[in-house]
Write a structure and sequence with these properties.
Blueprint lengths: L2 E7 L2 H17 L2 E6 L2 E4 L5 E3 L5 H11 L6 E7 L4 H5 L5 H17 L9 E6 L4 H9 L7 H13 L15 H13 L5 H11 L2 H7 L1 H11 L1
Parallel strand pairs: 1-2, 1-5, 5-6
Antiparallel strand pairs: 3-4
Helix pairs in contact: 1-8, 5-6, 5-8, 6-7
């Protein structure tokens, strides 16, 4: 019987990554993955809005899926940058921040639940999902212009080789960096939920996995 996993993602970019990369990886292991952003509101026409919400929108879906014995694992993927967790642990950075957020997020989901804790796999992305895109660009395995590749490699070098630690001020967060490269080098707008997953899909997963070991650990745990 095929194992069933449910993945809750923060937005469309993560959903596209899951559908293009995680789902095929899971399928090769005999695992069926269902993924979608949580409901964050309802329009006047009664249409559900999904993605881009606060952490609170992810907690209830995760708890509900954990209560379902037919789901073997529940994964949660979200950005730490700009979240309530980053504000709570403003004195922390790097791995210490990530570990504190993972602990808090896990506790908020499991609180009061009588379930096997190993079924929940929380994956906080330290800054933004675009760190994976930067890793893919820096590999030189995409179809993007050499100028963009050079920018990605320079950002990686400045972060001492740890792509998952790339950040700066608000204007130099991973997504802002990539958007500026697109504007300066390509003369067009960077479309997060289209360009990001496309670029990641152009690079073999092992290449991205090697550059993003912490994120890779979450993937391995979810698909184990």
């Amino acid at each position: 019987m095929m194992s069933v996993r449910h993945l809750i993602v923060e937005g469309q970019t993560e959903q596209q990554f899951a559908q293009r990369i995680l789902v095929p990886l899971a399928d090769s292991k005999g695992i069926y993955v269902v993924t979608n952003p949580p409901k964050t509101g309802t329009s006047k026409r009664g249409i559900s809005a999904r993605g881009g919400g606060a952490w609170k929108h992810m907690v209830d879906p995760a708890r509900n899926f954990l209560k379902n014995p037919g789901i073997d694992k529940v994964g949660v993927l979200f950005d730490v940058y700009g979240s309530e967790f980053q504000k709570k642990h403003s004195e922390l950075a790097g791995p210490e921040l990530r570990n504190a957020v993972k602990s808090d997020a896990t506790e908020s989901i499991l609180k009061g639940l009588d379930v096997d804790e190993s079924r929940l796999v929380v994956g906080p992305v330290l800054y933004e999902f675009e760190t994976l895109v930067i890793a893919a660009l820096a590999s030189g395995n995409t179809r993007e212009k050499p100028t963009v590749v050079r920018e990605a490699r320079a950002a990686l070098k400045k972060a001492h080789g740890d792509v998952e630690a790339i950040n700066g001020a608000v204007s130099t967060s991973p997504s802002h960096r990539v958007a500026k490269w697109w504007e300066d080098s390509l003369g067009k707008r960077y479309e997060k939920h289209i360009d990001g997953p496309r670029i990641l899909n152009e690079v073999p997963w092992p290449v991205v996995k090697k550059a993003c070991p912490t994120f890779a650990q979450w993937v391995d745990a979810f698909l184990d």
